Amino acid sequence: MDYTGRKTRGDSEPRYVISVAARMLDVQTHTLRYYEKIGIIEPRRSTGNIRLYSEQDIDLLRRVKTLIDDMGVNLAGVEVILRLLQRLNEMQGELEKAREDLANSKER
Question: Where in the sequence is the domain holding 77, given as residue range(s)?
């Protein structure tokens, strides 16, 4: 799932193995595996089936960690919030497309 909004292509390139990602986020590797199991994150896999996390994944996990640690939101709440953010980003994209279409129709 892409809960993080628009990012550049380089941000989506997988580059961190699970141990490095866990260290960056100050969490245990089993926490990242659990987040994957419940569908919060979906890291890419190498040809050897090693989990690889992108900058987008790290940003998403930081957001999750903030919601849980700083705001006291439970995992069910995190999932709801992330789904709402994803829908908000989709609607923003639709709005931008509609504005472009309107601008193009006015030019004709």
Answer: 9-107
In this prediction the pTM is: 0.77
Judge whether 43 lies within some domain.
Answer: yes
Question: CA dihedral defined by 56, 84, 100, 6, rounded to 10 degrees?
Answer: 0
Question: What separation in angstroms does the CA of 39 have from each of 3, 64, 68, 91, 95?
Answer: 12, 12, 16, 22, 28
DSSP structure string for 14-71: --EEHHHHHHHHT--HHHHHHHHHHTS---EE-TT--EEE-HHHHHHHHHHHIIIIIT
Chain segment 34-73, per-residue pLDDT in tens: 999 999 999 999 999 999 999 999 999 999 999 999 999 9
pLDDT tens-place string over residues 9-26: 568 899 999 999 999 999
Whether residue 38 is contained in a domain is answered as yes
Q: What CATH number is attached to the domain comprising 58? A: 1.10.1660.10
Q: Quote the number of domains for the chain.
A: 1
